[in-house]
Amino acid sequence: MNDPIYNKLTQITAEENVLKDEPLKEHTYTRLGGKADYYVTPSTYQEVQEIVLLANQEDVEFTLLGNGSNLIVRDGGIRGIVMNLQKLATIKADGDSVIAESGARIIDASRFALNERLTGLEFACGIPGSVGGALYMNAGAYGGEIKDVLRSTLVCTKDGELITLSADELDLDYRTSNIPDNGYIVLEATFDLKQGEYDDIKAVMDDLTEKRESKQPLEYPSCGSVFKRPPGYFAGKLIQDSNLQGVQIGGAQVSKKHAGFIVNIEDATATEYISLIKHVQATVKDKFGVTLEREVRIIGEDVEV
């Protein structure tokens, strides 16, 4: 193939790990998004480093996708190289610690901890994101969050260097970290947990799973909770009290089951989904004077008209 970037990518990683013009709606929980010029799924840390260095050397745009659970990709897609670390998904134990590669699901890290009779990750048993994504946004649920249990992380810098950072060096706060600002690519995370009883840990996880399944619209594609919790309020309650549940733009709808979710019920476009987010924000601001800040990330390009 007479494509210099494709050819160089396939010299770094196996040919099946490099796709051209790949529809990103195949890789996001919302089932939204245009195409990536190059969609790459490296299988080693060294390949990650080399792809980052290639992007720098060739001055090609570079985007880390994560597993697409808390993300909206616009309909025009993403230029340059899009990297997904799903093939880096090993989880192992080291004493009372769990070490998980960034492409592993945080749900699977939670289940692994259960099987090792380690307590501390129960809160993550229903969070759909990857380990890397969980660190990126200090993911949390049901009173727990990543910063409660994270000891350290191995990252690849935007210059292709591997460095280990302590949890304190990530500035973890409510749904934020300094990972995006510094351009870090999380490769693995070490969680410090405690010995516990299997039945006790499982009972907590079963209870949280039941709460999640009974309250959240898991039957439709969505990005999860769209908005951060405003100080002193609940986003879902504000949206519900604004009579927005069931409101629809195209195939995107404010969930009738949980107002904090926007679901793709009928082949929505990213444009429709984003328009509905803005409509919800404007309506809540007008009715209650509260600004809803997005928790979901929006990346990529709009379609040229």
From TrEMBL:
Top-level taxon: Bacteria
Listed cofactors: FAD
UniProt keywords, alphabetically: Cell cycle, Cell division, Cell shape, Cell wall biogenesis/degradation, Cytoplasm, FAD, Flavoprotein, NADP, Oxidoreductase, Peptidoglycan synthesis
PROSITE patterns: FAD_PCMH
Compartment(s): Cytoplasm
EC number: 1.3.1.98
Catalysed reaction, written as an equation: UDP-N-acetyl-alpha-D-muramate + NADP(+) = UDP-N-acetyl-3-O-(1-carboxyvinyl)-alpha-D-glucosamine + NADPH + H(+)
InterPro entries: FAD-bd_PCMH, FAD-bd_PCMH-like_sf, FAD-bd_PCMH_sub1, FAD-bd_PCMH_sub2, MurB, MurB_C, MurB_C_sf, Oxid_FAD_bind_N
Functional pathway: Cell wall biogenesis; peptidoglycan biosynthesis
Chief place of localization: cytoplasm
Catalytic residues (UniProt): 175, 225 (proton donor), 295
Pfam families according to UniProt: FAD_binding_4 (PF01565), MurB_C (PF02873)
GO molecular function, one term: UDP-N-acetylmuramate dehydrogenase activity
All residue ranges annotated as the FAD-binding PCMH-type domain in the record: 32-211
Family statement drawn from the similarity comment of this UniProt entry: Belongs to the MurB family.
Described function: Cell wall formation.
Protein name, as recorded: UDP-N-acetylenolpyruvoylglucosamine reductase
Species assigned in the record: Oceanobacillus luteolus
Lineage: Bacteria, Bacillati, Bacillota, Bacilli, Bacillales
